[in-house]
Amino acid sequence: MAVFTEVSTNEARDLLRRLQLGDLVALRGIEGGIENTNYFLTSDQGEFVLTLFERLTAEQLPFYLYLMKHLAHGGMPVPDPRPDQNGDILHTVCGKPAAVVNKLRGKSQLAPQPVHCAAVGTMLARMHRAGRDFDRHQPNLRGLPWWNETVPVVLPHIGPEQAALLRAELAYQNHVAASSAYAALPRGPVHADLFRDNVMFDGEELTGCFDFYFAGVDTWLFDLAVCLNDWCIDLPTGAHDATRAASMLDAYQAERPLTAAERELLPAMLRAGALRFWISRLWDFYLPREASMLVPHDPAHFERVLRGRIAHPVHA
Ligand SMILES: Nc1ncnc2c1ncn2[C@@H]1O[C@H](COP(=O)(O)OP(=O)(O)O)[C@@H](O)[C@H]1O
Ligand SMILES: N[C@@H](CCOP(=O)(O)O)C(=O)O
C-alpha cells in the first residue's frame, strides 16, 4: 500500500467528528495508489475514503475537489468531497492537506471486455460535457511543460536507445503542440489518468470513477487517448486492441462526435498519452519517494506502448 503518512485512530476519530460523519468503526490503509496516502474510514454512518495529499499543495487542490463536486452534482458517478461545519472541503490531517469522500461501490475491472470499454467511453464523453461549465481553471500539471522539465532529469538514468526515443518524441510533441490542428482541439477539464484501476464496475455496470488528482484543463482528445492506451491494449505487449478501441470510440462518439482536428490528431495524442506516463514512471522509478510498501509502476510498459503507437498509428 502507499501510506506515506501514518494516521492514528485518534486523528481519524477527530476528523469524522469535525465533518459530522459519525463515530469511527474502522481505519484501514489502502493497497494500491502511488501518489497519496489513502485510508478507508468506516463510521457508523457509512464508508469513506480519506486522502492525505503528499505532493499537491493547498493552492492546487481546490481545482480537483471542486471539479469532483461539480461533476457529482452534474450527475456523474464520482466521489463528492465532504465539507466541515464551515463548508470547507479541504481539511488538514497530520499537517497535510486532506479530503474525505464517499467510498464508491464496485471493484476495478482489470481484464476489460468491449462492454467495459464502451461504458468508459460513454462516461468520459459525458464527463467532458459536464465539465464545460466548471468555472475554475488549472492546467494539466503533468502536461507538456512538465514533460520538458522532467525529461532532462530522467535522461541520465536511461540507456542510449531509450534516451534517443525520449528526446525525439518530446521534440515531436512540442512540434504537434505548436500546430494549428492542435490549437483547434476542443478542451476543458479532463481526468487525465482514467486507467483501469481508477474505475469501478459491478459486473458490466460502471459504478463510478475516482482519483481526479491529475486532472486539469487540457484537450479532450488527450483524455480519450490516455483511456485508449490503457483500456484497449494487450497489457503484456502494449499492442493496440482494435475491437475494444472501436467499442470505446463508438460509445464516446455517440455522446460527442470527434471533430476533424481530433480525428487528424488521434495518432499523435496516443503517442502523447504514452509519452506522458513513460516520463512519470521513469521519474517515479529513478527518483523514488519514501513510503511503506510503495510499488512503482514499470516504465518499460509505456516505452513499449509508445513504440507501438509510432510503428502502427491508430486512426479513429
Ligand atoms: N472514492 C473511492 N471509492 C472506493 N475506493 C477508492 C476511492 N478512492 C480510492 N479508492 C481506493 O484506493 C486505491 C488508491 O486510490 P488512488 O486514488 O488510485 O491513489 P493514488 O492517488 O495514490 O494513486 C484505489 O485503487 C481504490 O481501491
Ligand atoms: N496511472 C498512472 C500513475 C498514477 O497512478 P494511480 O494509482 O494514481 O492511478 C500509471 O499507471 O503510471
UniProtKB/TrEMBL annotation:
Reactions that this protein is recorded to catalyse: L-homoserine + ATP = O-phospho-L-homoserine + ADP + H(+)
GO molecular function, one term: ATP binding
Record-linked InterPro entries: Aminoglycoside_PTrfase, Homoserine_kinase_II, Kinase-like_dom_sf, Pseudomonas-type_ThrB
Domain Aminoglycoside phosphotransferase: 27-257
Keywords: Amino-acid biosynthesis, ATP-binding, Kinase, Nucleotide-binding, Threonine biosynthesis, Transferase
Keyword Disulfide bond: no
Pathway the protein takes part in: Amino-acid biosynthesis; L-threonine biosynthesis; L-threonine from L-aspartate: step 4/5
Pfam families xrefs: APH
TM regions (residue ranges): none
Enzyme Commission number(s) from the entry: 2.7.1.39
Record keyword Kinase present: yes
Family, similarity comment: Belongs to the pseudomonas-type ThrB family.
Protein name per its UniProtKB record: Homoserine kinase
